[in-house]
């Protein structure tokens, strides 16, 4: 590292981070062993990662920052607040409308945060003369343990990061550098005896405080899970069509949270409680148009409509029956199956049986047929 006034360097880093809208950056060394390695392997051994096979495939690189980049010496961890301007729990009351997780209602945070990080990283490289790399949760790096080690906050009982100053609504970004920088004190756990996040989980996805089985998590089921959503979770999903905010929203530390200031992350009108009937009518082209520039796009139309139809089934809205009926002819088995399930919830048994008799003979997918039989 070139000769530099370390105090001036940190002051400059803080100032530039603030200009980019980040919370005060925190720094930690990445040259020592850390407990997160053990926790990762326990998580994978138990199968709690579900369909996220990339976690196991990249575990050898994910288990420690230096396994991702051998020359890394320090990590600068940054948080960008995306606090909502409403109580996310209130969205659950609008049964005929889709509830999209707060973080996904605006622009894709990956692009925004990475662009801001690159500006900071470029400055840091210029000031220190050392190589830098930036990460925004698309690389095999465990940002949350790094953030806790750096003192940005702590991993709460819901396994997400919590900040005493900013609550739970934080996007995380990391700059790894070959520079040896002054480090901050690690974060301390301030959850105490509270376990509101564990208790509120609709699907009981927490096997214990600080331990999440992703296979039962609504965020995982509606975003990462590639197949049919197991029946035992469908009613609990309610109108959540992309992600779930319950464990974040109930955290008492959010009393210190502020509404996110970054305009590009503010909710787009069409993604704030969209009408389920409108979403159910999306074909591939219109899906891509509606969700251009949104993280929702990567889930794909078929899995998204699978979620929409589960919400329709939970709506208790007779006006949504025609939407479900149209979907039983959809090319995707994922969509057809959940259309059948939705109709089983909304129709009288005799009407559902009559509809099954009309469609079962032509159904070519075993899973969809099982939904007809099981309804």
What does this structure look like?
This protein has 375 residues and is an alpha+beta fold. Among the domains are: 154 residues, no CATH class; 101 residues, no CATH class. 41% of the residues lie in helices and 10% in strands. It has a four-stranded antiparallel beta sheet with strand order 1-2-7-4, with helices on both faces. It has a two-stranded parallel ribbon with strand order 3-10. It has a two-stranded antiparallel sheet with strand order 5-6. Helix 16 runs parallel beside helix 18.
Q: Which structural class fits the helix and strand makeup?
A: alpha+beta
| End-to-end distance | 67 Å
Report Rg: 23 Å
SSE series? HEHHHHEEHEHEEEHEEHHEHHHHHHHH
> How do the strands of the widest beta sheet line up side by side?
1-2-7-4
Gist?
This protein is an alpha+beta fold and 375 residues long.
Write the layout of secondary structure elements.
Elements: H1 6-19, E1 26-29, H2 36-45, H3 53-57, H4 59-62, H5 65-68, E2 74-81, E3 99-100, H6 109-128, E4 132-135, H7 143-150, E5 154-155, E6 161-162, E7 170-177, H8 196-200, E8 206-208, E9 211-212, H9 218-224, H10 231-237, E10 240-242, H11 246-249, H12 276-280, H13 284-290, H14 301-314, H15 321-327, H16 333-346, H17 349-359, H18 366-374
Parallel strand pairs: 3-10
Antiparallel strand pairs: 1-2, 2-7, 4-7, 5-6, 8-9
Helix pairs in contact: 1-6, 14-16, 15-16, 16-18
Question: What characteristics describe this protein?
Answer:
elongated; alpha+beta; two-stranded parallel sheet; 18 helices
């Amino acid at each position: 590292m070139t000769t530099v006034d370390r105090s001036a360097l940190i002051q400059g880093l803080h100032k530039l981070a603030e200009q980019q809208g980040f919370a005060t950056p925190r720094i930690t060394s990445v040259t020592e062993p850390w407990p997160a390695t053990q926790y990762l392997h326990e998580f994978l051994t138990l199968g709690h990662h579900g369909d996220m096979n990339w976690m196991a495939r990249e575990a050898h690189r994910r288990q420690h920052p230096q396994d991702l980049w051998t020359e890394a010496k320090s990590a600068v961890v940054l948080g960008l607040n995306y606090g909502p301007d409403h109580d996310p729990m209130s969205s659950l009351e609008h049964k005929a409308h889709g509830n999209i997780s707060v973080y996904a209602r605006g622009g894709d945070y990956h692009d925004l945060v990475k662009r801001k990080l690159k500006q900071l990283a470029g400055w840091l490289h210029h000031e220190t003369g050392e190589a830098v790399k930036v990460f925004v949760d698309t690389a095999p790096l465990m940002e949350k343990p790094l953030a806790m080690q750096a003192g940005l906050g702590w991993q709460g009982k819901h396994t997400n990061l919590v900040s005493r100053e900013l609550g739970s609504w934080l996007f995380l970004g990391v700059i790894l550098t070959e520079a040896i920088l002054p480090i901050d004190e690690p974060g301390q756990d301030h959850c105490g005896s509270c376990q509101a996040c564990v208790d509120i989980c609709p699907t009981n996805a927490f096997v214990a405080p600080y331990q999440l089985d992703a296979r039962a998590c609504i965020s995982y089921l509606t975003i990462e899970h590639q197949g049919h959503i197991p029946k035992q979770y469908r009613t609990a999903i309610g109108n959540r069509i992309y992600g779930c905010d319950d464990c974040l929203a109930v955290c008492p530390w959010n009393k210190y949270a502020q509404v996110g200031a970054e305009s590009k992350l503010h909710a787009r009108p069409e993604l704030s409680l969209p009408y389920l009937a409108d979403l159910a009518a999306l074909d591939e082209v219109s899906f891509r148009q509606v969700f251009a520039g949104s993280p929702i796009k990567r889930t794909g139309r078929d899995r998204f409509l699978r979620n929409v139809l589960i919400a329709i089934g939970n709506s208790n809205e007779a006006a949504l029956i025609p939407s479900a009926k149209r979907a039983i002819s959809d090319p995707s088995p994922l969509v057809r199956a959940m259309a059948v399930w939705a109709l089983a919830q909304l129709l009288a048994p005799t009407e559902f049986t009559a509809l099954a008799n009309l469609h079962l003979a032509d159904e070519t997918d075993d899973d969809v047929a099982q939904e007809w039989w099981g309804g």
